[in-house]
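Recall that a protein's primary structure is simply its ordered list of amino acids. Everything else, from secondary elements to tertiary packing, is in principle encoded there. The following example makes that idea concrete.
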Amino acid sequence: MQNDKFAPPPLDRQNDKFPQPIGFIPGQPQPGYPQPGYPQPGHPPQGYPAYTTPADTYGHPPPPPPPQPPRDPPTRVDPPREGCFKRNRKNKPQSNAVSPAGLIFLSGGMNIAWAIGFRGPIYYSSTTHNYVAWFIGAFIGALLSILLANRLAKKYSLLIASLLVTIGGFVIACTHNNGPATVAACYLDGIANGLVFAPFVALAGEVTVPYMRGGVTASLEQLCFGVGILLQIVYSVSWTYPYYQSYNDYTPENMKGVLSALFGILATIYGFLCIIESPVQMLVNDDEQGALDALRRLQKPSVLTEETYDLLAQHKRYVAHNKDLSSGEKLSQTSLTFIRLAYLRVLNAMSLSSFVTTTLSLSIYLSYGLSAEQLWFILFALCRWAGTIIPTFFMDSLGRKLPTVFGLLLSSAFAFAVGAKFSYYNYMSGVTILLSVFEFFAGMASSATSSYLSEAYPLEFKQPAIALTFIIEMFVFFIIRFCNYNFMQGDNYFYVMGAMYLVGFILGVISLPETKRMTLRGAQVQFSSFINKKFN
């Protein structure tokens, strides 16, 4: 009987990093190796250990045992021992591969800010439909992305979206005081943002190395939307208006159209040049050579390295893990994850709703007068932007969970404080400052949701689930914008929002996992459990 010591390792311990060499045929004798049967010259008999004499090892250390792959591959990947600038330069193609979608999100952030009230005076008849058209368009685009999930290449989705953004921008830029044209442009821009949201949030998680995924995904979505909101607020409140407005005068809406068209054109150019399709989806389609080539092009210089094969092995294990899950397990994991992430995205929408901006305008008018609007609006926008960008820089070192739960707790406290200070008799004293600080921590609480979306859902349901999460968020924007704001009971909104942020804090502490530097497989396994109390 053959000795078990020399039996081949089981399949789950065999190395899946390197593919078999070309020409290898399992079960066939290979040149240079002992053939089955009688012992060959220079080789010990099979089934018996090789006999060595003291002269064979005299003066030399015994040869080391051959390396074996780990029984359970690690799910956390530490960054290589090199400077951060060198590391960022090497992985720059990964952020470039999704950056065209960030230009689409810049335009989306401008339209969100316009819809919730930062637009300056308009000189045409408008209805609520004008202000909810972008959100309806985002519904439509997200539903289309579900129907086209993994059927249409990411590059084609981006090019269609960039064309829609460009057309919508030109429509607004070339018309003056035209309400129907504004509605049409908002629909086009909303469809474009909904169409690329799910595919590119998923793509950002699949093309990025584990130790940089948090920063890339947060920069792509939350930061780009935040920059668009900041840009819209700054130029709209800084606009100087003539004493007599004529029909052909250049307005802030025309400026928004010019910027949107510019973002759409740039997205088209970068889409042709930079987008690299997901190596994970290539492995799903049994295109291992294509996945290896994509991973090679996602690093600079574009050569095959040890890290390239490591990433290929990680993705193969990720795909195999998802194939091994039953349909019931996938649905269970998707539903549990959807509850947590959709709730956080609902809070994000509530913190930027039209009720918040109306309260801000009212508090500025009662406390400081109309002359102070420009300063306080810009401060409000800067606080929101700073609350988003600061955690982004530390997403892969400090982690996702700690900034999220810290932001949720303090957002709850400041929302309650705004509700308590909401009083006409005291001229809304202190509400303006409290709202600005609230936005800072609300941005911090939402910054990690992009990373969680890119890595939490099972592979088969990832894009549809991300799109549904986006639809829920847009639906909250839509409902709040459609409702009438009651000035006499405005404090109730902030009390409700404070309570929801407090529930979000408890939910985050108990159930949100820490997924920094984790592989996609490891992050998905973490989200499969509803109870996650660890912070590291």
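The first helix runs from residue 54 to 57. The chain has one domain: 96-240+248-277+325-527.
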